[in-house]
Design brief:
The chain has about 575 residues and is of the alpha/beta class. It has helices spanning about 35-40, 75-85, 140-160, 190-200, 215-235, 255-260, 265-280, 300-305, 310-315, 340-345, 350-355, 370-375, 390-400, 415-425, 465-475, and strands at about 50, 60, 65, 90-95, 125, 130-135, 165-175, 180, 240-250, 285, 330, 335, 360-365, 380-385, 405-410, 430-435, 440-445, 450-455, 480-485, 490-495, 505-515, 520-525, 530-545, 550-565.
Amino acid sequence: MSYLEDSRENSDPAHDPVRPGEQWFFYWKTSAALWESRILQFPKSDIIFIPLYWGFHAESAAEWDFGKIHSERDLLRLSQLMTQHGRRFCWILPLSPAPFFPNGGVPAFAARTMSLSQDGIHLAALDREHNLNKLLTFFEPKVFSAFSQFLKSFVSFLSEQKVEAPVWGAEFFYLEENRKVSYFTDASVAFEHGFSRYFRQKFPEGTGAPADPGPLKHEFTREVAGLFRETAEAFLSTYWMGRQEVIVLGGSPRDCIQRALPAGKSQLSYARELVKLHTHDEWLSSALLSRGEKRDLLPVILSEHFGPREAEEKYLFQKPRTELTEEYSPYGVVEVYTDNDSFRKQGLLGFLDDHYKSLYTQKPDFSFSNEWVLGSQHKIKVFQGSKQTRVHLGQILKLFLMGHRVLLDLQDLPAELEKKLHIFFIENNIRSQTVNFVTPTSIYELGDGRLVTFEGRRLVGKPEQRSFWQHIFKYFTLTQPEVSMDEDVLSFWKIRGASAHELSYLDVRRVNFYNPTSYKKHVTIHTKNHFAFLRAVDPLRATAKSVSQGVEIELLPNGKITLDFGHYEEVAR
């Protein structure tokens, strides 16, 4: 099969297999003679990301070609074209099977065993031309050997040709039943053979072996994935920027079947996934989606909320925005730090979905940095005690001292850290207000800082849990318009500083509404006493009108509208 497209040029990036989205450039999808024209179709300000189809460069098991044999492998010419036309670019090195490459990227000489999902399904994905790409496991010893050989040759090429572009490693994931699954995860015979050796090394006498091998298999998987990452970092050295996790839309085993059917996967399903990715602060690739799949509101949402500026921040070409300027930036009011469903069981995430949809993010952990501290001053931060170390607890307490608002679930907080917490309050002469509503709750105040501790396990299964969260968030007095809307309507909030002719406002908040369904939808925004409706922007099959309590919106099928609100006063404490 040839993976080169025909010679017809396509100026629309949404429909171009060489430029499949998110500023990616699939150099192997077209003739090298067409690279220049395709590069010039990118906006000059955009960074171009070049995924390395490493198996494509294998001439044999011992020889790697970067243009001496085949022109479509000529990465020197590609990099020179980028430089010649003043384009910034970086390489994306796959650290896992990638669904948009044949064999997942594995070269033919190392392709032996297909990856197997935990459900026993051979992993494969449909690309945007609906070719079926089988995914080969990375647990085959030959694959690691080939990967190492490629890295050695690629680094030599970069060094000899003085190509200065940075390299990001990428591990690719798909969404399955609201959880992300790495393409690295495997249950094939190759994996089981490797795990058997790992198991015997851990328990040579067989004593002390766990009854359930599941956690040990997960540990083995992450160790092997870490080996690929560490090897790449060691070889690439000064070129190496770090590792990114990329969720591939339409890339799950279920998606493969749905997308092969005439009806395909619904636009509403894709839209819901985008909201999930936005909530979890995840990055994505829409490279698998065809022209017919990337239609209606989907390309609009991708360009407006996963566009060039967001990509630059994700890949560290731009610093995260910590101060308000006249440029809109993403806005949220709550950050939840968890990697399990505890806060779902306690009712917190359900409450946030109902009252602060798209205004909260959920992340597995936090990185304590000056940029993060400054940029998230206005956000309520929610932490699990069971996930804390001595260092992390110290950072949480520092946030409180710096005027942040913090919620800490004391469930399973180690006794040593609980003692440290009590000593901190005594040493700083901070007294608490304690109430026992559903769960024992303590409130600590110091200047602008607020720290609320509670016993999360007491909330599980209690009908009063919603009332508890209502009281907590009422105490924090978040200044934000309330929105009433159908669960299938999508919303995204942004914020900017007030301009010279808007000095009566503290800031301006923008909300985008999208209706990806085939039904008419209504939205009501209650502005309270702190917001003024300024304008409606770019309505498409949508109308907005001012009413006494705020703004009412009507969204027809595939309708969208953007509204701006001036924030003109803070709530007095």
